């Protein structure tokens, strides 16, 4: 397998819903969300469309299409502080891993992902909690993004970036900062801590 040409083109997925809650671990008696979708949750949505051991998805940018608006509510599980009317665009691609087989290629996995993304139902996956379904749509990366209002520059603090490979119960974190409505994610191992 030629690992020099092992990266796919970039994709963009629009993600929205009525509510979202990506629970912070420091609140044990209620569900209090991070202010934006976490990279781990975003990765789960993408892998829900297409995942194979031969590929590894990498998210590059989270575009904030609306500023986070918090709301408090009760669900059967208890009190929830959630994001109301969340809207994001995710820019991402994949790389082939060392687990590729003779039938794996960048082109084959791109085609499978696009086919599955176009066929997926309008509601697939969840925005943190199973009470909050996600709406997702694959769009070309050249399509301009529409923001409801200008999104200010914000420091969202430390967000879980990825699981520690040797201990999947632990996370690596990164400092999430929005500039002009974009949160650029670090490359693996760059400016992250565990």
Gyration radius, to the nearest Å? 17 Å
What is the helix tally? 2
Question: Helical proportion?
Answer: 10-25%
Strand fraction band?
35-45%
Folded structure, characterized:
The protein is mainly β and 194 residues long. Helices cover 13% and strands 43% of the residues. It is built from two helices and 13 strands; from the N terminus they run βββαββββαββββββ. The strands form two sheets. Strands 1, 4, 7, 8, 9, 10, 11, 12 and 13 form a nine-stranded antiparallel beta sheet that branches. Strands 2, 3, 5 and 6 form a four-stranded mixed beta sheet that branches. The longest helix is centred in the middle third of the chain and has 14 residues. It is globular, with a radius of gyration of 17 Å.
What is shown here, in short?
Helix content is 13%, strand content 43%. It is mainly β. The model has no long low-confidence stretch (mean pLDDT 90).
